[in-house]
Amino acid sequence: MSNDLPGAAGNLAAAHPEVWDAYASLGAATANAGELSARERRLVKLALAIGAGSEGAVHSHARRGLAEDIARQDLHQVALLAIGPLGLPRAVAAGTWISDVTEA
Length: 104
Hints:
single chain; mainly alpha; 2 domains; 7 helices; about 80% helix; about 0% strand; peroxiredoxin activity; Carboxymuconolactone decarboxylase-like domain-containing protein; CMD-like
């Protein structure tokens, strides 16, 4: 699995596969704990990454969203929705991080 992961996450998975497996299992358990669709979960995770100010996580969730056929404009709308609760600077930064992926 580490071959599929970019950068530091791939390095961690390669060096500590048991830790990565536990992390992946936790992710699967949380995904299956409710009734949200896969699309809804991806957009929520993107929003949480924006709120946390994590450029890497925003890139990751935008990249996964595209792979899951979520429209580019929907990913960008999540950044726009951040304006109210997080402020214009954070939302603009998130928009540029999403563009890094959608315009590549």
